[in-house]
Sequence to fold (412 residues):
Amino acid sequence: MFKPLELAIALRYVRSREAGIFVSFVTWASLVGVALGVAALITILSVMNGFEAESRIRLLSLSGHATVYRADGAAFDGPTFADQARRVPGISGAAPVVEQQALFVHGEDMAPATLRGVDARREESVTAMAAVLNGSRLEDLVPGDNFLFLGRALAFQLHVVPGEDVTVLLPTVDEEGALEPRMRLFHVVGLFEAGMQEHDATLAIAALSDVAAFAGVSGATSLRLRFADLYAAPEGARRLAAGWPGFKARDWTEENASYFRAVRLEKTMMAIILFLVVAVAAFNIVAMLVMVVRAKRTDIAILRTLGLSPQGVVRIFLGQGLIIGWGGAFLGVALGTALATHVDQVAGFLQRLLGFEIFDSNVYYITSIPSLVDPRDVAVIALTALLLTLAATIYPARRAAATQPAEALRYE
Fold:
């Protein structure tokens, strides 16, 4: 514990200019360095959290939280199983689907994509399909008419617009194992744009019965689920599949594992890089305290002769270092949290001031800077900065305590 006298001396040394202008400059540079490093780390990680959350919403907008399917790949009665799933606590929506990998042809243009058949009455309980359709409705997919919604990027590749037809080729094999592709003409009645290349360039939506008949299956091939709690989906889907013999489950963390793994790796590397900024500021504290100790050798000797113990000297210089380091850390937490909370307004101000657009709406789907302040991130950053600056004060404080009063006062 610090004694009042020791804290008073430590605070006096922080404000003192007797050690020299350079030492005073290093002192404030250390404080500002810790504050800026902590603030930058909180702000950047919050923005990355915001982009991750926004990407997750867009990724799951057309795929649901989990998928249940038969292990042998056979079709099943989708509506019946969907109604059973809806009665399970925690599941807010269930919709049967049929998915087939197909080749889409329009004139001389070709593109591979996923042909998904959906039940218009149940699909809206699982995905945000209705929200991404540009002026169309799911009810426009009249069963039996071979109507089709195309992702906007896929339609651009095929050079097709609503009102035109596309030919869909489905690779199948006959009883002897020979390749026997099926071909059917679908009429494009609308486009959708989810804001993710994974959907807009690789997905086409049709009525479930049309795709099932085209693929030659008797029902749904999978059941998509939506949970009230997104993070309960992995356990909930596995528990549901375990209750249905012959079924398996996969959830959003598995379907998009590579993407979220890349995001976590990027956040980790960015955190390490920015922690180095805080570490440099902490080393500045070491350098500053060493210089203060050299300049205050006479003061230390006098305090020792007046009865101050070596532990008291250690606490004085620990206090000086902690005032600077912890002051910078707390200032950085306050500044970083405020900046992360209002980063979109700050970015808007800079765009108006400098006359440029950070995210051009003609290029990017996300035109604003999302930010999500995670209290756990803030706590870890603050605790790490506090420990780092505390460690930086130990060596100079122990060196100050090792000062011999007789040696320091010999030439005074």
Summary: The chain has 16 helices and nine strands.
